[in-house]
Design brief:
Elements lengths: L1 H23 L15 E4 L2 E8 L6 E7 L4 E6 L4 E8 L1 E5 L5 E3 L4 E4 L5 E5 L5 E7 L6 E2 L4
Antiparallel strand pairs: 1-2, 2-3, 3-10, 4-9, 4-11, 5-8, 5-10, 6-7, 6-9
């Protein structure tokens, strides 16, 4: 009798889970062409087209454009940033390290709190996909 009751309860749980999943409906694939995306300026020389999530609260994913020759001053972010460059180059320089040019097809992960500068290629700027588990912010660091 216990095994029948257990089977009934187990079946009821599975049916309940499937009913809830079905009520939410299937999710559709999302396609966004970076050439047609709706970019908005977030800081001078930096535009973003948020693809998913909430850029102001996080997590989120976005296409980001750096204007040609952009040089963001020394700064940090509250959350990790993961970047894959699509076009141009993302120029990254840690406070006490070597400048890195991150080109098309390359990935960089910038940890929260990392003190660095960033910018775009002098001629092309940069177009990249960026995602973060938290909100986007750019906190300037005083040079001491």
């Amino acid at each position: 009798m216990k095994s029948i009751a257990g089977s009934i309860v187990g079946t009821a749980l599975i049916v309940g889970v499937l009913a809830v999943a079905g009520a939410q409906g299937p999710k559709d694939a999302v396609f966004v062409d970076s050439k047609k995306a709706d970019f908005k300026e977030v800081v001078p020389g930096v535009k973003k087209a948020v693809l998913w999530g909430d850029h102001d609260a996080g997590p989120y994913g976005a296409f980001t454009r750096f204007a040609p020759g952009l040089k963001n001053p020394l700064h940090t972010h509250s959350s990790d940033l993961r970047v894959v460059v699509i076009r141009g180059a993302y120029i990254y320089k840690p406070q006490n390290g070597k400048e890195r040019r991150v080109g098309p097809g390359a990935f960089i992960s910038v940890p929260a709190g990392d003190v660095h500068t960033s910018g775009g290629d002098a001629k092309e700027g940069a177009l990249f996909y960026e995602e973060s588990p938290g909100k986007f912010d750019l906190k300037p660091v005083d040079k001491k």
